[in-house]
């Protein structure tokens, strides 16, 4: 794995299928982000020229932001791109660093699993009650169609990076 990504990143090798899925989700998140950007530019342009913005543009940005963020999380984890506080590990050896990163991955894995569980229940509840956005009346649960698989992927990626760091501790 290339250590030049960032000065302090310690990414570990992942199974190719998992790395590919992380890239696909990040690519989809990028497409959603690009669509939000283009829609925002169009809405601002229409507002300034015709006085008529795209109705519900803020709702689309809100939903799109949630989707994009959740799609980027697995890629960030796979690349070792999360924030590290290395003040305590600057003089630690590689084994200790990987052990601490495995511990951090375990904590992140537990948080991701908790979020996956709660988001699943929340999505089911929003579907059951027919929760919709205010202006466009978009069913909110639609976003969970992407968010839940992204959280599943994040959970799997956290487990894989934790295992990878533990293997490097024993190496």
From TrEMBL:
Keywords: Cell inner membrane, Cell membrane, Membrane, Transmembrane, Transmembrane helix, Transport. GO terms for molecular function: transmembrane transporter activity. Coiled coil: none annotated. It is found in: Cell inner membrane; Cell membrane. InterPro entries: DctQ (IPR055348). Its main location: membrane. It is a multi-pass membrane protein. One of its GO terms (cellular component) is plasma membrane. Pfam families: DctQ. Residues 36-167 form the Tripartite ATP-independent periplasmic transporters DctQ component domain. The chain crosses the membrane at residues 24-46, 66-87, 99-120, 140-163. Part of the tripartite ATP-independent periplasmic (TRAP) transport system. Belongs to the TRAP transporter small permease family. The complex comprises the extracytoplasmic solute receptor protein and the two transmembrane proteins. This is TRAP transporter small permease protein. It comes from Paracoccus jeotgali.
């Amino acid at each position: 794995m290339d250590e030049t990504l960032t000065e302090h990143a310690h990414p570990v090798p992942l199974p190719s299928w998992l790395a590919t899925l992380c890239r696909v989700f990040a690519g989809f998140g990028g497409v959603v982000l690009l669509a939000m950007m283009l829609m925002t530019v169009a809405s601002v342009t229409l507002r300034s020229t015709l006085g008529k913005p795209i109705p519900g543009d803020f709702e689309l940005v809100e939903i799109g932001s949630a989707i994009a963020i959740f799609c980027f999380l697995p890629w960030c984890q796979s690349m070792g791109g999360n924030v590290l506080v290395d003040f305590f590990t600057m003089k630690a050896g590689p084994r200790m660093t990987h052990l601490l990163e495995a511990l951090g991955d375990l904590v992140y894995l537990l948080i991701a699993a908790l979020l996956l569980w709660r988001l699943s229940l929340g999505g089911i509840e929003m579907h059951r009650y027919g929760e919709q956005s205010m202006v466009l009346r978009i069913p909110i649960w639609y976003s969970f169609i992407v968010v839940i698989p992204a959280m599943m992927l994040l959970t799997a990626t956290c487990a894989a990076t934790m295992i990878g760091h533990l293997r490097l501790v024993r190496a």
